[in-house]
Amino acid sequence: ASPEMLHNVSNLEKAGILNKTKISENGKKVRKNWGQSWTVLHGGVLTFHKDPKSTPGGTSSKTNQIVPEFTVDLKGATIGWAAKEKSSKKNVLELKSRAGTEFLIQYDTDSIITDWHKVITDTIRQLDMD
Ligand code: I3S
After folding, report:
1. Distance, CA of 108 to CA of 130 (rounded, Å)
2. 101 in Cβ contact with 24 (< 8 Å)
3. What is the ipTM score, two decimals?
4. Which run of H or of E encompasses 112?
5. I need a surface site. Which of 85, 91, 114, 121 has the fewest CB within 10 A?
6. Residue 106 CA: which ligand 1 atom is closest?
7. CA of residue 32 to ligand 1 center, whole Å
8. Which ligand 1 atom lies nearest to the CA of residue 92?
């Protein structure tokens, strides 16, 4: 592989803290449940980890922070800025999996959310070419 390719692969890996909620599953609306997640993009899959605060009895033991809660295969997924009606929060992205599960992803800091928007968009594009 060329150095450019190796560089691009590393550009499609990212991890950080985001706020997220599922809003629909298999096309059916579900109740929002906003929470913070350690979020990891790796190998075309986005993984939201459990909010340690939501684990009964588990304040923030290190192991609780790495329990996956949702994974989203970005192949065939779509991402875009959510319409105003979707949330009262600022900087909200809407991510829809090919299977029809929708998430909202949010972070107050513009640069953080725009970085995620870019890397998820680029990953989806890359996977479309496979
Ligand atoms: O789209 P909604 O139903 O107005 O979303 C809000 C609710 O989920 C609310 O909780 P309740 O289910 O107890 O009403 C949440 O606390 C809000 O954060 C949700 O709206 P935002 O605008 O924050 O996405």
Report:
1. 33
2. yes
3. 0.89
4. helix 110-129
5. 85
6. 24
7. 6
8. 24
- Beta-bridged to residue 41, according to DSSP, are 14, 46
The answer for residues whose C-beta is within 8 angstroms of residue 46's C-beta and 6 or more apart is 39, 40, 71, 72, 74, 95, 120
Tokens linked to 125: 């594009």
Instruction: Please give the structure tokens belonging to residue 28.
Output: 């059916």
**Mean local confidence (pLDDT), 39-51:** 93
Q: Please give the structure tokens belonging to residue 9.
A: 């692969």
Give the count of alpha carbons within 13 A of 126, CB side only: 18
**Joined tokens for residue 121:** 């968009």
pLDDT score at 30: 98
Please return the burial class of 27, using the count of CB atoms within 10 Å of its CB with bins 0-12, 13-18 and 19+. Answer: exposed
Query: SS3 for 67?
Result: coil
Task: Please give the mean pLDDT across all residues of the chain.
Answer: 88
Closest residue by CA, ligand 1 atom 18: 34
Structure tokens at 107: 């972070």
Q: What is the per-residue pLDDT for 3?
A: 55
Report the amino acid identity of residue 4.
E
